[in-house]
Write a structure and sequence with these properties.
By secondary structure, the chain is an alpha+beta fold. It has helices spanning 16-20, 49-57, and strands at residues 3-6, 25-29, 35-39, 64-67. It has one domain (3-67): Alpha-Beta Plaits, CATH 3.30.70. The structure holds iron/sulfur cluster.
Length: 68
């Protein structure tokens, strides 16, 4: 089953992923006041692959990938 992987160094909390797939991604505040993405479910059933893949592709700083 594909899995969502986040590059924390890249994520800037811009929220495109949440806007596209709020069941999977949520922007949260970090302890030092920055914003970053929280992945609500890491494993992606095949039926949701296209939807989640589109959301990962929407990230402007390429912080998200789907890994088989
Ligand atoms: S993963 Fe990308 S789109 Fe999602 S919050 Fe981080 S920077 Fe924004």
């Amino acid at each position: 089953m594909p899995r969502i992987v986040v590059d924390r160094e890249r994520c800037e909390g811009l929220g495109m992923c949440e806007a596209m797939a709020s069941d999977w991604f949520e922007v949260v505040e970090t302890d030092d006041g920055d914003e970053t993405v929280s992945v609500l479910r890491e494993e992606v059933p095949e039926a949701d692959r296209a939807h989640v893949h589109a959301a990962t592709q929407a990230c402007p700083v390429l912080a998200l990938s789907l890994v088989d």
